[in-house]
Amino acid sequence: MTQPTAAPRRGPAGAVVPKQPAGWYSKATSVAVAVLIWKTLAVFEGYWWEETMLMTALTLLCAALIEVALPKGYRAAKSVFQAILSLILIAVVASAYGELTWQRVSAEDGGLPKWLEIHFAQLSAFIWICAAVLILYTMFIHWATTRTRLFAVLSAVLLTLTVADSFTPVWLWDEVAWVVLTGLLWLVANHLSGFQSKHPGNWKALLRSPFQLFVPVAAVLAVLMTGGLIMPSISPLLQDPYTIWKESKGEQVGTFIGDKADADNPLSNMDSSSGYGRNDTNLGGGFNYDYSPVMTVESSRRSYWRGETKDVYTGTGWLDSEAAASRFASERVGLRSVLPGEDRYRAETVKVEQTVRMIREEPYPVLFAAQQATSLNWVNDPDASRLNPPLFWSEEDGELRLYEGAEMPDDGYDGPYPGAYSVTSEAVVLDEEALRQTHAGWEDASRNAPYLQLPGELPERVKELAEEVTAAAASDYDKAKMLEQYLRSAYPYTNQPDLSKLRGSDSTDFVDQFLFVLEEGYCDYFSTAMAVMGRAIGLPTRWVKGFAPGALPVADPGPGGFGPEELMEMNPDGAGTYTVRNSDAHSWVEVYFEGFGWIPFEPTSGFSYPYSVPETDSEPIPSSTPEETDKTPAQPETEQNNGSGVPFRLIGWTAAVLLAAAAAFWAYARRHAIASAWEAYRFRSFTADERIVWETERLLRKCKRRGLVRGEHETIREAIGRWNGTGSQLKRELHEVIDRFELAKYSPVQASSEDAERFASKVKAIIEQVK
Questions:
Q1: Higher pLDDT, 265 or 452
Q2: N or C: which end of the chain has fewer CB within 10 A?
Q3: Domain that holds residue 112
Q4: Are 588 and 688 members of one domain?
Q5: Run of H or E residues at 422
């Protein structure tokens, strides 16, 4: 007999109301959309950071699991759980990759609101990306409810991947294969869901033998995928129209996306991202954060990685003096040669061994090293017998510079920037008391002149402010420290200063604009301001650019965790392998002190230079850990918890509480289904009559707790009759219970499972009334 087709459900006006998809199909859609978006994000492979890709993948996984685990509906609750768990995952991944520096903020410094502001600033870029992915995912799973929309989603994803495959260097055919497989499975699920809604009886019959339904589907998909995997690689028979058109003209299909700015392309965005700048003649503006890695530095001590120095301030930026080119030795540096340095007869020094391995294939004019380099150990090959490429050393500037002369030696080098090199440096131990006993500059005034140069157009108020700030200083070192601390405390850090403040201003000098008009900025603003203000009061200064230390891998705190003090005891020198990114590009100031040489100062708000300090100091100079790099807005100098156990424990407990809350919410929403499942399991071995007897005995126990006691020699019917005589309002219901009980107990007629279910419901209703 043919199964009758269910009549369509109609609305108030008689219009047919489309059937809602089955619950299992909604969950299948949630999984399919998550896979499709995940594969689409492969377009950004190589352009996004590894941690960004991981965060988005975990966000999608978390969202899909919540959609599957929680029952249909409860949209607001699902969205809240998805957002909170995604935020926790972002923080955990960012901490693991060294992109998040945990800090404690006291109540006096702003408490919880300030703590949230500081950490949100570090995570904002990741949060917005993951939020966009989560919003897109939610929109798709609620929009793709029909087959037409399903095809629309698949078409959009396939179009995105194929276009990106054509116009970018990313190979995406594996992702296309995954999308096709996912789309086929989604279409099968859509068809089965439609079949279930139209023919519920036949659907139930199919479920009694699921292998007959699903095995053929799995076999067809397996054959298709296996054929695709073992098929030999051949040139594509079909190409997109744009590729055909370009190749017909004998041209290559170019890429629209790349990881380097093109100097010849007027649309290039060279000046918009953080990184080691090439042109320092016009400082200012703002920058966006570029988190791509530049190099790793395996070092025996935490340091700033020094690059170039500049000594001529023009009013808009920095230049090398005409004498700078002549300061390089006439012969290039030899392998393992000693690099002559400045006279530091009053200073104690410590050795810093560094091995630099470049990640970006990008040329720089210098090799990077901690201050001050004393020997070059090897370049590219530790076992090489000679040094290549040609390098020249400037004792005055402390720079290891690549050969840039017009005449290349016969055995000259025309290859790429060195991929790896090893340098030994000697860092000055910062003895503040000894520095206060000396003076800034050389005894020979002519040597000071280049480092006291200022443009004639420098506004007088810059010098007046410098004199005002240092009026109470008792030594040149105190003057430098007062300038440093004034800039750090008086001006906030931002990577995007409000340049609209310059409109209508008469100020044209870069430092004057920073100090009196913008009153905010990033490292170039702070360092240039200190160098110029120092020169204005007679301190010989020079401007230095390079990289901040970067990030060490986050140590595993273990079950008990450890704080900053324990970390410092474990690794007091900050030894390790640092990952240095474009966002770590930085600039600072050096002041010359007789007998000590060039001493670095860090005026940028939110940074601390990693000084070495005398072992006899009971209280060392403030933390050598920079509290941020040029990639994040300034943060107050609160206690660091970089890698400490407290935030990870906080995250762990928060995640556990949220998961427990999600589980409790799920259990509450499914309480009836859970209760039914438990009853089915509990009475799986009971006959219907045994179930009725058990339910009757449960009723008697409940009644006893409410004062309706059955006598020792009373039958159940006698006890219920006595209860009815006391004015019970459940007389009819109780008599129905005893009648059904006696049938189950004494009658040869067997009750059905439906009879047992109805009896259990009646007993439950009586118990509710007895309460």
A1: 452
A2: N
A3: 23-198
A4: no
A5: strand 420-428
Start-to-end CA span in the chain (Å): 50
Q: Which two tokens stand for residue 571?
A: 């690794």
Give the torsion through C-alpha atoms of 379, 381, 386, 388, to 10 deg. -50
Whether residues 710 and 572 fall in one domain: no
Which pLDDT band, with edges at 50, 70 and 90, does 42 fall under?
confident
Q: Is the peptide bond before 372 cis (omega within 30 degrees of 0)?
A: yes
- Residues composing the chain: 771
How far apart are alpha carbons 69 and 52 in whole angstroms? 26
Whether the Cβ atoms of residue 514 and residue 630 lie closer than 8 Å to each other: no
Phi and psi, residue 422, nearest 5°: -130, 130
Which of 150, 166, 198 is where one domain is finished?
A: 198
pTM of the prediction? Answer: 0.51
Element of type H or E holding 543: strand 541-547
Q: State whether 111 and 35 are in the same domain.
A: yes
How many folded domains does the chain comprise? 3
Q: Which residue has the higher pLDDT, 538 or 155?
A: 538
Residue 683 domain-assigned (yes or no)? yes
Q: Do residues 83 and 134 make contact, with C-beta atoms less than 8 angstroms apart?
A: yes
Pair (423, 491) in one structural domain? yes
Both 333 and 187 in one domain: the answer is: no
Residue pair 490/295 in contact by the 8 Å Cβ criterion: no
Same domain (yes/no): 608, 728: no
Burial 449-484, CB ≥16 within 10 A → b, else e: eebbebeeebbeebbebbeebbeebebbbebbbbbb
